[in-house]
Amino acid sequence: MARPRKFDEQQVLRSATEVFWTSGFAAASLDDLMRATGLGKGSLYGAFGDKQALFLRVLEGYCADAAASLRDRLHGPDSSSAARLRALFDAMVTAGDPSGPPRACLLAKSTAELAATHPEVAGRARQTFTAIADLLEAEVRGAQAAGDIPADRDARRTAHHLLAVLRGMEALTEAGMDRSVLRDTADTALAAAGLR
């Protein structure tokens, strides 16, 4: 009979997330993961599998949380869809702590590092970006219903454009670009979407 686990699985995953987020997949050593989680190699691998399996669990949780957070943020009546879109882009302008080093989105970091060689990562990234595009499209359609975006705009194409700009803004933030650049980027994207 297997012995019951004597650790909090979610806490272990949170600790592993910090290691992968800070170091990336390749640079995160087993020693780093054991030190952060407080687990030995046998317990860590026994519970989560190898390093790649642990990383995929971390990425899965991060992506699910990111999509759920955006879903909550964009939830509401059509009459306030435009305001929620503006607020989303405003938050991207002010994202990050200007006094500290910028910290890239774990999904963006993981996609850049691993998508070309790890089909599971590429697939999870596509799934997450599609979910985000779906949420943005719903918000564009809501703004169209409220008369804040012209009805003749293609909502799906507009959502894809907004998604690309949001992801680009994350990269600009990570590079330490001035907030005025981010503000210009956000304003131009919203104007291009036809947001009044």
SSE sequence, one letter per element: HHHHHHHHH
CATH architecture field of the largest domain: Orthogonal Bundle
The named CATH superfamily of the largest domain: Tetracycline Repressor, domain 2
- Average residue pLDDT: 92
| Number of distinct helices | 9
The secondary structure category is: mainly alpha
Report the CATH topology name of the largest domain. Answer: Tetracycline Repressor, domain 2
The rounded distance between the terminal residues' Cα atoms is 64 Å
Total of domains: 2
Dominant shape: elongated
What is the strand content?
Answer: under 5%
What's the number of extended β-strand segments? 0
Radius of gyration: 19 Å
* Low-confidence regions: none
Question: Biggest β-sheet: count, sense, barrel?
Answer: none
CATH class of the largest domain: Mainly Alpha
Helix percentage = 55-70%
Pfam families: TetR_C_13, TetR_N
GO molecular function: DNA binding
Domain HTH tetR-type: 6-66
Protein name: AcrR family transcriptional regulator
